[in-house]
Design brief:
It contains twelve helices and no strands. By secondary structure, the chain is mostly helical. The radius of gyration is 20 Å and the shape is globular.
């Protein structure tokens, strides 16, 4: 079926690109302090377990959209989601700023990166979803090239003996990491917001993005352990070190080029969160709501960095908020809310 272009609407394929990038960049700045135990082969098991749970949690979110019972149709819930997106933006900005100030430029203060990313996120939210959609397509291609290059370049360093023993963590640690990685999949909440902006139905794109991104993350962790062995457990940012190991054709410092691609991904992630937050405050103009959301994200990042030093962010508020906004609220709305008349035809598509 031919879908006509509409103003302030994006094609379903763009949803896949944005959600894929949004979840992937989280793993780039994953530290040993975020997960339980050390980075070993069983981390791949945790990633695949998280993929399974996240796929199951998609069900109430998808049904909310298809049956026209979106939580964003309820005014006070919409505002709560806006606050949730600000919290997530602050969390991701603080993580990236810690990563940038410790690995990319140790002489710079973290707050400088927070301010820079927050301003860029404001700009991305201000130009609108169509511009973000086009840029996400471009960033996705660059990230795909970077990942393929890194994996191909590290094939020569791949040592399957480093993968043993397959299970080195306790069952409790493996299960804990599954829940931690699942809770980082805020894309379920983003999908509820973006579904209003899609020129069509993007249910398949949501499912495909989750399966594809977790598969790529599992592959990256697998290579990180196979290439570095026990040394992976000593790295604060194991995936960043994997990128440093990639030297195709004898080129040195190729990781700088790859990191620039990841920075594009961080921009997409932060801008998408700020944009979704800004549209959640419907009674405020787009410009003002984007400013409020960006400033709120910067403030949240500063607070988080002050409370949790050295990037050691407690996952408890992340897990609780994820459960509330990505499962409990959608499930409750699906059960108790009447179908919105404006979306009545969606359930039949």
């Amino acid at each position: 079926m031919l879908i006509r272009a509409q103003r302030n609407k994006i094609p379903p394929s763009s949803v896949f690109f944005m959600l894929f990038i949004s979840r992937l960049v989280v793993s780039m700045t994953t530290t040993q302090s975020v997960t339980t135990g050390v980075i070993r082969t069983d981390m791949v098991i945790s990633v695949l377990g998280a993929m399974l749970i996240a796929s199951l949690l998609c069900i109430p979110v998808v049904l909310c959209v298809k049956k026209g019972k979106n939580p964003f149709d309820v005014g006070w819930l919409r505002v709560l989601y806006g606050i949730y997106f600000i919290f997530l933006a602050g969390l991701n900005i603080s993580r990236f700023s810690y990563f940038a100030s410790t690995m990319l430029n140790p002489n710079a203060n973290a707050w400088v990166f927070m301010l820079l990313v927050s301003f860029c996120a404001f700009y991305g939210a201000y130009v609108g979803i169509e511009a973000l959609s086009r840029f996400s397509s471009f960033a996705f291609v660059l990230l795909a090239i970077a990942i393929v290059t890194v994996l191909a370049s590290n094939v020569k360093n791949y040592n399957e003996l480093n993968l043993y023993p397959i299970i080195s963590s306790s069952t409790k640690n493996i299960v804990t990491n599954i829940f931690i990685m699942t809770a980082s999949t805020s894309e379920l909440a983003l999908f509820l917001c973006l579904s209003e902006k899609v020129n069509g139905i993007a249910v398949k794109q949501l499912g495909c993005s989750i399966v594809c991104v977790f598969t790529v993350i599992a592959l990256l962790f697998l290579f990180a352990v196979a290439v570095m062995g026990e040394y992976a457990a000593q790295q604060s940012f194991p995936l960043y070190f994997l990128f440093q190991q990639a030297k195709p054709g004898g080129f040195e410092r190729i990781d700088v080029l790859h990191i620039s691609f990841w920075i594009l991904g961080v921009f997409v992630k932060a801008a998408l969160l700020v944009y979704c937050s800004s549209v959640s405050f419907g009674k405020i103009s787009q410009k003002n709501s984007a400013i409020i959301s960006a400033v709120g994200s910067f403030a949240a990042a500063m607070i988080i960095s002050k409370i949790f030093q050295s990037g050691n962010v407690s996952m408890l508020p992340v897990v609780i908020s994820f459960a509330a906004f990505c499962f409990v609220i959608p499930a409750a709305v699906l059960i108790f809310k009447k179908r919105s008349s404006s979306n009545e035809s969606i359930g039949n598509m």
